[in-house]
């Protein structure tokens, strides 16, 4: 049974289970804490905007359009067919002059 003892104690020799020294992982890979990874970043899905952001963007767009229309209307004179213009004329307003008692545009 001398030959059987050698076969039965296969766990006694741990070199059968250990990796050779040249195939051990290098410490450079293990000690990479705090360093940025140089690997290729994973594909990120494009960020979608939330309903609140959509609502805010739509509100801003409508405000810009309204401001543009207001500025365009300010550049032109009120037509004489406008009811407000006719009321001013009945109260003594003449186009090209200032409003007010003294004609200075102030209120009194």
TrEMBL record:
Signal sequence region: none
Domain G-patch, residue spans: 80-108
InterPro entries: G_patch_dom, GPATCH11
Protein known as: G-patch domain-containing protein
Native source organism of the sequence: Platanthera guangdongensis
């Amino acid at each position: 049974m001398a030959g059987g003892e050698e076969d039965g104690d296969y766990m006694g020799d741990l070199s059968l289970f250990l990796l050779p020294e040249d195939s051990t992982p290098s410490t450079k890979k293990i000690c990479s804490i705090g360093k940025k990874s140089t690997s290729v970043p994973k594909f990120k899905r494009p960020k979608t905007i939330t309903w609140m952001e959509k609502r805010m963007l739509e509100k801003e767009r409508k405000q810009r359009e309204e401001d543009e229309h207001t500025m365009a209307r300010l550049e032109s004179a009120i037509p004489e067919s406008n009811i407000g213009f006719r009321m001013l004329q009945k109260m003594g307003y003449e186009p090209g002059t200032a409003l007010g008692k003294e004609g200075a545009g102030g209120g009194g």
